[in-house]
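agent> Task received from the user: take the single chain below, predict its 3D structure, and emit structure tokens. No templates, no multimer pairing.
agent> Plan: (1) validate residues, (2) run structure prediction, (3) serialize to tokens, (4) report one or two observations.
agent> Step 1 OK, no nonstandard residues flagged.
tool_call: predict_structure(input=
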Amino acid sequence: MSSPATSLAHCERLEVLFGELAELTGQRNAIDGRVVEIVAEIDRDELWAAAGARSVAGLVAWKAGMSPANAEVIATVAHRSEEFPRCTEGLREGRLSLDQVGAIAKRAADGSDEHYAELAASATVTQLRFALKLAPKPKPEPRPEPEVEPEPDHTPEPVPAPEPSISKSTDGECTTWRITLPALEAAKFEAALASHQDALITDWKRDHDTEAADGSGQRPPMPSTADAFLALVEASWDAEASRRPHGQHTTVVAHLDLDKPVAALHLGPLLSDADRRYLTCDATCEVWFERHGQPIGAGRTTRTVSRRLRRALEHRDRTCAVPGCGATRGLHAHHIRHWEDGGPTEMSNLVLLCPYHHRAHHRGLITITGPADSLVVTDGAGRALSSASLARTPTTPPPAVAPYKGPTGERADWWWYEPFQPPPPPSAN
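)
tool_result: status=success, residues=429
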């Protein structure tokens, strides 16, 4: 058992340590507030895309050298900073922590800034999350009741089922298909579509969990109904390839004129330069070479990345080659010197790119030059991209703010969990 003198010394030491901890925590909160201001400006003007990043959170994780989860919190607070001025002001002044404001920005409803700014002065992060969980969800607008038509005096004649039909309309770069099916065929179609979407979502969740575990933080969007429809087309078409003429698969065919170069889809429109290079870069398209309008051969066998070469690329690169990306799923094999410009399909001329950065390169947003062992990636302004963060030894003093007091730590009172009620709308009078 410690003596009273020893306990007094421990208490005095704790007071000194707690004082320094409060000072440093307040300064850290104020620094996080300034970081949020910078990220909010980047988000507002969409400057993250010019830097070669996939999102605001991806840019913060890359440039600040932090985890994707922490970067997501900063991006969320920055995106809603104008909706919660009192909470972000408390962060800049060191009175609130980033985790407190992040919990509010993630779940709080519009117009609740004053309510949660007052609550955060006393509640811990756990209590804030619990209070936000109890907040009422916005009620959906009531649907208008359908008009009831008067019953006819006689029994109506049965309406014949519609004949199956498909129509297509094209408007610029978009094509709209309209499918009309009878009830039974429509039910079969919806069941098949739902089955494929469930399978895609299952794969997406598995990849999502894997990426969350390895810390890459690259989360592709959840598969949509359109993705399920395309999967249904590919599965039903390719499953019976042997029964069709020439055993052809669902391959996109493009015709490339070597003298231009100009490319067009088979029996379709001309391709832009960016789309042409994107389609003919990886093995996703069968290309027919033409000269003076006459086909002279197909170049699929010389352009395709074989399975063995693909495995060697995956072993060497592991992730997207663009610094700061780290994506590991759905990567494309990209020709550094483009294949149509004479670039060989060899390891020294190939790198793996995620679909986002692959398209960004062919659209001129980023530039990739090689060879692969000394790859150089630059953004739209010609600045070389590096995977290192921007962190460096500070040259300015920390912000002068009041020491951080933190939540009171007392037992939660009932008003902490009182859900926020938005003010009633102004009356018409």
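agent> Step 4: summary for the user.
Residues 9-135 form one domain.
agent> Done.
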